[in-house]
Design brief:
heterodimer; A: 423 residues; mainly alpha; Arc Repressor Mutant, subunit A; 23 helices; B: 911 residues; three-stranded antiparallel beta sheet; 68% helix
């Protein structure tokens, strides 16, 4: 299963802190040797400021109480840095800690800056210090603090670039705080900011979009409306779809899963299938293969097979594991529906095999579908078959269809003419 | 004076239709020979005139007329001028110049002809040349005294104003007949001999004396200075008329053997190479093979020395090299004029040209091809040298040349080349062992005897062609300019295609945005682009990607000038006469035979892929014009063409075969279709022949099934899966998948009956009344639509205008959309088509045309229109013929340009 694990492909596009939950998840799944993951964690933490945590893991891993001296040195450095930055940022933090003060701030940034300068002697340096302090807090794993500080910073900072960075920082903090509602807002703001940027180097824009798509996975698969949002964002032709095809075709898995789960939005299937086929030469996994088997080859046996693999993959995927059952259920429905569309008579027994269900269960399931008017069919219980309603239109129906709106249109036409002469 | 009038009259009579210069020639001739009996009617060439002039000199000794005396005096002044020039004394030159002009006036009065004597013209030309030389030579100018410098300035200004005899001077310069001067020189000097003009004797005889001296001396007595002096002398005469180039080469060859010190050897060799290049003055003809080889060997020799003596620095700009007569100290830094890169490029061009000209079916061609390793070895040495010197300006140029030698070689050819190189190296080693003593002598006479060329032992070709190319391309990308980068990119895409890596090739092509920019590039790059596209088509075909193959190759064929686009032969066009210049240009662009892409193969690929794409559609809509065909209904057109024949013979050419195959396929008879395709002779040229045919068989089966279902499904009430499987020899899954897709897409009206595994057709036979009712309802809705449109027209005011806008435009737009949808529908990776068919709005939008929004930011959406407009404009036929020669060529060379050009202008007014 490890060959379908995407952690390694996703990780380069994530912040160090964001990779951590993924590793944690992998540890639970035992796909890789425990030791490797632990080492990976230390490696990961080495460059952050979460030294204490790294030390704990090190002790745990090597089963000692000894800690390498460079870790100790690093710890001292981090503490020193933190102190220094805190001192620098103290005036502004002090100012911000009073809600009355915050209330005095206006929307106009220039005005705010002048106000701060005059009333509290807080200049641009102190505001910059606030940003650095927030960054340091984030590095230390103090996400709540950093999210709050960055929020304030965004109110004060003058340069749009720094504001942009702060936004990324806040986005990450909110994700790590599992505050997905706020993260979703940040995501929308980030997208807006990125779309608003004109004259960005194409390579940079590509990189930013790729990053955004990866970070957004956390939101999409945890927020209640995420499954819808992921389709909206990822299939956005010239921006994100292109970026995905160029840089990160592995994201297709998440898009496919979202489309399958969100079965109401069948309309995007066609586009999705096209993308899958286009990318088949550089990325394919059972999830994409499932859709390919179902909607390109119309090979239901293969689709069934792939679905089996999908279940395992989804189980081992940090983002998708929660959505596994929903995925399987909807996938089954998709198979069945497609199957019905091209058949007029189906043997319940074979059908039950295809759906990997008990024969009686399958019959019950089908009958339920028929009762909910999701399916135009009847069950022939003597020959154990389902007979589809004939879908083709009779000529009379065709004519009725075509002429149905004639009268309304004519009426409107007449109305317009009369209205025109009156006017 | 009557003389003058007569001659003028005479000239006017004889050259009434000739140009001005002609009449002048006649004039001077008439007056020049007036004292003698020789008629001007004879010949009319310049030689004659000169002869007559000198003749008169000799005659003069007997009867010294006033005229001759004046001419004599003039000549003396001329010589004085030369002497002053020699000592670089501009103040004196100025006074002599005045004197000369006065003298000329007097002379003209006597001779009574409008043109001055040749001696005057010559000295003026010399003066002008010298002045320009001095002017250009900043170093020397600095050394001059201020007064001298000032004099130089004023002299230059005066000379610029002194344009009285410009025409004559130009004629003198232009006259390329080198023998003139020599023939004249001798009698002149002899005449001066008798006149005891000592200066003149010295002047005239200096050159030959010295030549003899250095040639006759013992090589060890020759000093560095002597060689340097001689070299500069040769260099000064270089490019002037009257110098025998062959002799110069011999001289330099000799000098190269006696030169002292490595720096001087390099210097002499570099001049030798460039004078060898000079031997062949015309761009059209190629250098002699023997000369080419000696050039190569000299350059190898040079590189050998250079790598042994790192203190020698090469300078490409001749002006920056100080002229030093002294022998430099050992190990000191020396600057030498030599442009390795330019030499390499010239050598490559010459090799290319010779391959263009030589008949490819002869042994000579093969022999010539075997010279390629020499060039490769040389170029590699040069690039190594440049890398060591960190010359990143020249490096990409050399690397690009190498790339262009490697890129089209398939593995087998590359390996053969490697083997050949190794053999040549071995042969060279053996030869070296045998004739170690002879080596020196041979080199001496290398220019005239057969040159011995050795592949240096340290030259190795990379075992893997791909690696070799990658390294070179990387260096071009790192340091090269835009054109070099584009070419290198195209070459590596081409190489990828040869090596069956279609996807990478395509991605590179799209990411580099070459198809957007190629129209702006030079023609040779456009040819390379077209070649690459053709190769991509072939590669896609081999990989079984039929739509992609068709998209690539179809574009080349849509213009009908595929030969011209690929530069593989001239097309005789019925509609467009080519001027000789155009033809010459085109001939110069031709690809040598060994680089050709087989046209028959290309045509087969094009037609077969068109057949596979179009046959099912043809079967689906047998009567009306095909709705959803691939861009051009090529096959259906061909088919109609053939159906008008009364008798159809057995297929002969590619077209016949494919048409026969299509006809078979249309009845679902894939076996016969396959047989026809297999009978094509060009498959032997296709790499991986068996696999490709197997792939084609599969495709024919699938498309045959689709065609069959389209054509005959309505005749069945049910079709059994087994029967279809046996008919098309496909497995049940495949049949199921294909027919299911057709059911889903509503292409056949039917459904599977699972228990019996048959397709049950729901054919609805409409009664007459019903079909009439359907038609009626159609008409009614059409009437309503018309009414709506009429109402809109009243609202907007102008019925006619509105009809134009509202009537045709939306329908057309709809057409485009349909097109786009059709392409989408096929579910193919039409990225190819989308990127390339940039002009089609329906298509462009949805491909991967712009990676990560690059397209948008770089060109903007409007870019396509602008470019299309330009291309279209260039293509307009009503252009003055003078411009046509250039402009007509450009779009024609880029297939894209023409494609866009045709489609875009229609949209322009709307924009």
């Amino acid at each position: 299963m490890a060959q379908h694990d995407l952690t390694l492909r996703i990780a380069p596009y994530l912040d160090r802190h964001l990779v951590f939950p993924l590793l944690e998840f992998l540890q639970g799944k035992a796909l890789y040797p425990e030791r490797e993951i632990m080492e990976g964690k230390i490696e990961l933490l080495q460059r952050t400021n979460m030294v204490d945590f790294a030390m704990d893991i090190y002790k745990n891993l090597n089963d000692t109480d000894e800690v390498p001296p460079e870790m100790m040195a690093r710890r001292a450095e981090v503490v020193r840095d933190l102190r220094r930055l805190e001192k620098e940022a103290r005036p502004i933090i002090h100012f911000l800690s009073d809600p009355n003060n915050v209330r005095t701030l206006r929307l106009d940034k220039a005005l705010n800056l002048r106000f701060l300068q005059e009333q509290y002697q807080i200049g641009p340096e102190q505001i910059e210090a606030l940003f650095r302090f927030a960054q340091c807090q984030f590095q230390c794993g103090n996400y709540g603090m950093s999210a709050e500080l960055l929020q304030s910073y965004r109110q004060l900072c003058a340069s749009p670039e720094r504001g942009f960075s702060a936004l990324w920082g806040r986005f990450a903090s909110n994700i790590l705080l599992q505050n997905f509602e706020a993260a979703n807002d940040d995501l929308a703001k980030l997208r807006e900011a990125m779309d608003g940027q004109s004259f960005v180097a194409p390579a940079l824009a590509l990189q930013q979009r790729t990053w955004l798509m990866h970070w957004a996975l956390f939101v999409f698969w945890n927020h209640k409306n995420g499954v819808n949002a992921i389709i909206d964002v990822f299939l956005q032709e010239d921006r994100y779809l292109n970026a995905m095809q160029t840089n990160a075709p592995h994201l297709l898995r998440y898009l496919c899963a979202a489309v399958v789960i969100n079965y109401r939005r069948k309309s995007v299937l066609k586009d999705l299938v096209k993308v899958i086929l286009q990318e088949a030469y550089q990325y394919s996994d059972p999830v994409t293969q499932f859709l390919e088997a179902l909607y390109v080859k119309y090979d239901f046996n293969e689709a069934q097979e792939r679905l089996g693999e999908c279940s395992e993959i989804l189980d081992n995927d940090y983002f998708l594991s929660a959505a596994r059952d929903e995925f399987l259920e909807n996938a089954r429905l998709a198979i069945f529906e497609t199957y019905c569309r091209i058949h007029q008579c189906i043997d319940i027994k074979t059908m039950s095999q295809k759906l990997s269900m008990d024969e009686d269960d399958a019959e019950k399931w089908i009958v339920n579908l028929i009762r909910n008017e999701k399916l135009d069919a009847r069950v022939d219980s003597r020959s154990r078959t389902v007979v589809m309603g004939v879908t083709s239109q009779s000529i009379m129906e065709q004519i009725i269809d075509r002429t149905r709106d004639l009268s309304i249109k004519t009426f409107r036409l007449a109305n317009e003419i009369v209205g025109g002469t009156r006017a | 004076m009557s003389n003058v009038i007569q001659s003028r009259f005479w000239a006017g009579g004889s050259s009434d239709d000739a140009s001005d210069s002609d009449s002048e020639e006649y004039e001077s001739k008439g007056s020049g020979s007036s004292s003698e009996e020789e008629g001007a009617g004879a010949g009319g060439n310049r030689m004659f005139f000169l002869d007559s002039d000198t003749d008169s000199d000799e005659v003069r000794r007997v009867v010294r007329s006033a005229k001759d005396k004046r001419i004599e005096e003039l000549k003396v002044v001329c010589d004085e001028m030369r002497n002053k020039m020699k000592i670089n004394d501009w103040t004196s030159i100025q006074t002599v110049f005045d004197k000369l002009n006065r003298q000329l006036e007097r002379t003209l009065k006597v001779t009574a002809k409008p043109t001055p004597p040749l001696a005057y013209i010559r000295v003026m030309v010399e003066l002008e040349d010298f002045l320009e030389e001095m002017w250009g030579n900043k170093e020397a100018k600095k050394k001059m005294s201020p007064t001298n410098q000032r004099a130089l300035n004023t002299m230059r200004q005066r000379l610029a104003k002194h344009v009285v005899y410009e025409k004559e001077m130009a004629a003198f310069r232009a006259d390329p007949v080198s023998t003139d001067e020599e023939e004249e020189e001798e009698p002149e000097s002899s005449s001066f001999d008798e006149d005891d003009d000592l200066e003149a004797i010295e002047e005239a005889s200096r050159a030959p004396k010295k030549k003899d001296k250095i040639l006759s001396m013992e090589p060890k007595d020759i000093t560095h200075e002597m060689v340097a002096e001689k070299l500069s002398e040769i260099l000064q005469s270089r490019g002037k008329r009257g110098t025998d180039r062959q002799e110069q080469v011999e001289m330099l060859t000799y000098l190269a053997t006696v030169a002292k010190g490595p720096a001087q050897v390099v210097q002499v060799l570099s001049h030798l190479v460039s004078s060898l290049f000079d031997l062949n003055p015309s761009m059209a003809s190629h250098m002699k093979v023997s000369q080419w080889k000696s050039c190569t060997s000299y350059m190898l020799q040079m590189l050998e020395i250079l790598s042994d003596n790192p203190n020698i620095k090469l300078e490409e700009d001749a002006e920056q090299v100080p002229e030093s007569a002294e022998e430099p100290e050992e190990g000191a830094e020396v600057k030498v004029w030599c442009s390795l890169v330019a030499f390499i490029e010239r050598l490559d061009d010459e090799l290319f040209k010779s391959l263009q000209v030589i008949d490819p079916h002869t042994h000579e061609y093969l022999e010539r091809l075997k010279d390629e390793p020499f060039f490769l070895a040389l170029a590699q040495r040069v690039s190594e040298y440049l890398t060591s010197k960190e010359d990143f300006k020249g490096l990409p140029r050399v690397a690009l040349r190498l790339v262009e030698h490697y890129y089209y070689k398939v593995d087998s050819v590359y390996n053969a080349m490697r083997k050949l190189t190794l053999e040549q190296q071995q042969a060279a080693e053996e030869a070296a062992e045998e004739g170690g003593e002879e080596g020196g002598e041979e080199e001496e006479g290398a220019a005239d005897t057969k040159p011995i060329l050795k592949v240096p032992a340290n030259f190795t070709m990379d075992e893997d062609a791909h690696n070799a190319l990658q390294v070179l391309v990387a260096s071009v990308f790192k340091h090269g300019d835009e054109r070099a980068k584009a070419r290198a990119m195209l070459c590596s895409i081409f190489h990828k295609c040869i090596h069956e890596d279609f996807y990478t090739a395509r991605d590179w092509m799209l990411m580099s945005h070459l198809q957007d920019n190629v129209q702006l590039m030079d023609i040779s790059t456009q040819i390379l682009y077209n070649r690459t596209i053709a190769q991509m088509g072939l590669c896609a075909f081999r990989a079984g990607l039929i739509p992609e193959a068709h998209a690539c190759v179809g574009e080349l064929y849509s213009s009908g000038r595929v030969k011209e686009l690929l530069a593989q032969g001239m097309t005789m066009s019925r509609y467009q006469e080519k001027t000789p210049e155009q033809e010459k240009l085109e001939r110069r662009r031709q690809m040598p035979f060994h680089m050709h892409i087989n046209l028959e193969l290309l045509e087969s690929v094009h037609l077969i892929s068109a057949m596979l794409l179009e046959a099912p559609n043809l079967a689906a809509n047998p009567l009306d014009a095909p709705r959803r065909t691939s861009s051009k209904p090529f096959i259906s057109w061909l088919l109609n063409n053939y159906q008008s024949h009364t008798y159809l013979g057995p297929p002969e050419n590619v077209k016949d075969h494919v048409v026969a195959a299509t006809r078979a396929l249309l009845t679902g008879d894939w076996r016969n279709s396959y047989k026809y395709i297999c009978a094509l002779p060009c498959w032997s040229l296709m790499p991986k022949q068996a696999e490709v045919l197997e792939m084609l068989k599969g495709k024919l089966q699938e498309e045959g099934l689709r065609t069959y279902l389209f054509a005959y499904a309505s005749q069945y009430s049910s079709l059994s899966l087994d029967q279809l499987c046996t008919m098309f020899e496909l497995n049940p899954q495949k049949v199921g998948s294909i027919s299911s897709r057709m059911i889903i897409n509503d292409e056949i009206h039917g459904a599977w009956d699972q228990p019996t595994s048959t397709i049950v057709m729901h054919n609805i036979e409409a009664t007459k009344l019903q079909s009439a009712a359907v038609q009626f309802s159609d008409k009614v809705s059409m009437l309503l639509e018309m009414n709506e449109r009429a109402l809109r027209a009243i609202r907007t005011g102008n019925i006619h205008e509105a009809d134009d806008d509202g009537g045709h435009a939306p329908r057309r737009r709809g057409g485009w959309d349909d097109h786009g949808r059709a392409d989408r529908h096929r579910g193919n990776k039409a990225r190819m088509g989308s990127g390339r068919g940039g002009g089609l709005p329906g298509v462009r939008g949805w491909g991967r045309g712009g990676y990560g929004g690059q397209r948008g930011s770089r060109f903007g959406e409007g870019g396509g229109y602008d470019r299309g407009f330009q291309a279209g404009f260039r293509q307009q036929p009503q252009q003055p013929p003078s411009q046509q020669s250039q402009q007509q060529q450009q779009p024609s060379m880029s297939s894209l340009g023409s494609l866009r050009g045709r489609q875009q202008p229609r949209r322009v007014p709307a924009v």
